[in-house]
Amino acid sequence: MRHRTLVYACAVSIVIAIAMAATSSVAGQSAPLEKPRAVAKTVTVAKAYAPPKTPDGQPDLQGFWTNSTYVPLERPQGVTKEYYTPEEAEVAIKRAADREAEQTEPGTTADVHYDFSQFGLDRSQSTFAKTLRTSLIYDPPDGKIPQMTQEGQKRVAERAALRKAAGGQYDDVKNMPIGSRCIMMGGAGPPLQNAGYNANYQIVQGAGYVMILTEMIHDARIIPIDGRPAPPSGVRQWTGVSRGRWEGNTLVVETTNFNGKNPFRNGSENMKVTERFTRVADDAIEYKFTVDDPSTWSKAWSAELPLVKTDGPIFEFACHESNHGIANILAGAREDDKKAAAQRKPSSN
Amino acid sequence: MNASVVSGFSRTVIAVSLALSMAGAVAAQSPAYKAPRTPDGQPDLQGFWTNATYTPLERPNGVTKTHYTPEELEAVLKKAAAAETAQTEPGTTADVHYDFSQFGLDRSQSTFVRNLRTSLIVDPPDGKIPPISAEGKRRLAQRAEEQKRLGGRWDSAESNQLDDRCLIMAGPGPPMMDAAYNSNYHIVQTQGFVMILTEMIHDVRVIPLDGRPAPDAKVRQWMGVSRGRWEGDTLVVETTNFNGKNPFRGSTENLKVTERLRRVADDTIEYKFTVEDPAMWTRPWTVESAMRKTVGPIFEHACHEGNFGLYNTLVGARLEEQRAAEDTAKKSSN
Amino acid sequence: MQSRLLITTIAAVSLAAGVSMAQAPQAPAARPATRPAAAPAYRAPRTADGKPNLNGIWQAMNTANWDIEAHSAAPSPVRDLGATGAIPGGIGVVEGGSIPYLPEALKKKQENQANRLKLDPEVKCYLPGVPRAVYMPYPFQIIQSTKHIMMLHEYAGAVRTIYMAEQVEAPADSWMGWSNGKWDGESLVVDTKGFNDLSWFDRAGNFHSDALHVIERFTPRSADTLNYEATIEDPKTFSKPWKISMPLYRRVEPNAQIMEFRCVEFVEDLMYGHLRKQPASK
Hints:
By secondary structure, chain A is an alpha+beta fold. In chain A, 17% of the residues lie in helices and 19% in strands. Chain A has helices at 15-20, 86-102, 150-166, 324-344; strands spanning 63-66, 137-139, 200-206, 209-214, 219-224, 241-247, 250-256, 272-281, 284-292, 301-304, 307-309.
């Protein structure tokens, strides 16, 4: 296997994907997979796909996968149905793709940002997962995150107050976004989220374990499947602590013990995430998650985010090691402060 | 002797009666003595031992013979014991120091090793440490410079003595020397190892017997690194890799010590050692001494943990300087 | 409810994912029991005097010395050490999870923890006490003879003498206590009393009084591992006895040896630097 290690802060997408770019379309690809099934039930009908097995008998989820997609988590305003028609889906994708290309218009706020399409980082130039869903959330049926509890709202207000009290975003490294600080990014979860670019994963299974490596920021979740309990509540981690088990061909992973410092949609450290991975085709894993956090939402809610096969290898994402961005931004902000202070002072010339 | 626990006082009583009951030279063993064996077949050196002795390392000035008569020895011992008690005369420099005889710390109240020899050094034959080499002179001058740079004894912890700093004392060596009091050791053996625990400051030497080599020269330790082997009934221990921070009579990090321990009676281990350090002396020199059985257990010597002395003397010295400075300021302003 | 999931891929490049395609469906792997069934008792080789042989160099491999209770990773208490001084997370070694402190004692523990750079005896290279000596991140050597078993710790050269033949009553309080030992089948059982109240159980401020009584069991579980358990009793500090347990691992590399770690020298500047004569003597 080739080994290529790229130590840029922004990974470069696979060259091949750029070459394949313009021909992104449904036509000519493998036939769309349809599985009539009830919600929250794994495939049982005749056309069911039988996944290969690992040497120790686990259904094989191994390989390189991406959850890149244009489908939003919540149903867009004005949309009420759960599924688009194929034509409507294409329109939605094109609109989103155009917006990505738009970012690079000189004079726009995103002007200083790199040209996503130039580096092939935009979703349309890479593998991405298509679905006719109008939102990833399927429960509640309106496709939106449920109403927050009073406690949840209070926590949101407290967090906002703390942020305000901490000062400007560039006053202190601790006021900057967690991803900019290279601590962790959304792709790792759990639950797994679309990272926006480089939304790549590698799954490797060994006897008694499933490992999920998220490209950004080389986060590896080690999931034991031997039935051991979660650790005491004194253990708190950014990605929580995961415990897995197989139910038929579905890997069910429960995660607790979050430290609450990177709240998923403003959840608390008492959040429990249940994920379900089922390989439904050679090149696809059905990925569903349920978020259960009674101190934040009045009910649990669920979403489905498909994982589709992509090319390896996963490149090393040495984010912190080359994080010139933070040093430069803070230095620049301090320069700005000095200039502002000098201007305020009556001239000493 | 059954080493059941007894109070400190009765320990002293037993030791005194032991000392008084001993006569003559150390080597009062039966020529046919064969040391018992440990379960894995090593000659058994195990137990509690002391190397306290009145015999000086070097032959005293004015003495030319190698051995005293028994009567001469008694006179020497009496004088030495009197010197220890004399320390406590009010008005003497040692007045502030504790009364050795009161705490039973003086050698005469404990088990000690008697020796008709006039010095522990048996080679060179004049009983003195050999002359210092050219490199040795250079090293000594270097050390004097360094000590000057560090300053007076009470200037800092680092400029004080190793024993006051609770870093290391005379007992562990190697070579193992009389620590002046509490000069006690515990030897424990197991398959492939001999362990020697020195009471002050709970120093442990673990001596492997499996023939492994000394480690790389980059490993440097206060007690060096020891390697042992049995030659018949004699345990031969070679020690190198010293860090040179605790010179033995001036030795450098190049010191090599070869010790020989042999049990010659139930209550006696013959202890000999040869010291080599071409960076300090023109030739190696050799000592013969012994260890006598004593009563256990070894008490924990938590020196550093209770080292109020170092702290208090530093505080006192700084206060004195402050006062002296204030006095000078007052005088000059008058 | 029916749902239609449409998934397509775009990149048709050949993949090296190593997915095996041609396998007959098998039963999913049987889920192992929650805890492996207790292994049949291991019988250690014997010493020449017929006892389980515990000779060797042993070391714990966990974060107990940082905190014997479960804890998450945390920054270094000394900023300039960066990640080298940061605290790794651990699932804890206390059976049942929490130490049963009496209410007043718990307050003292919290005070200890908040001031640990000043108060932790390990910072000053003081003797570690028991059981902390066993799980410090440094090895210790067991030298086993008939009448005495020595435990010789690399950290601060700490020494424990386990009296096996005669039972020794503590003649005075000490940092490492006074230990009497006996064999119970395959286990060495060590009963230790006579502690002072100056040592801690870890860097997190867990502490005890001079009423501390520790009963340990060292049980060989394989050629190169021991099972270590310690029951802690101290009615002045805890509402009931509690227990810790962990494996100890043999240092198997050739010529393994305990190195000197004479840390008294390393803390002189910390402890006495402020009393240095200023300016220095010329």
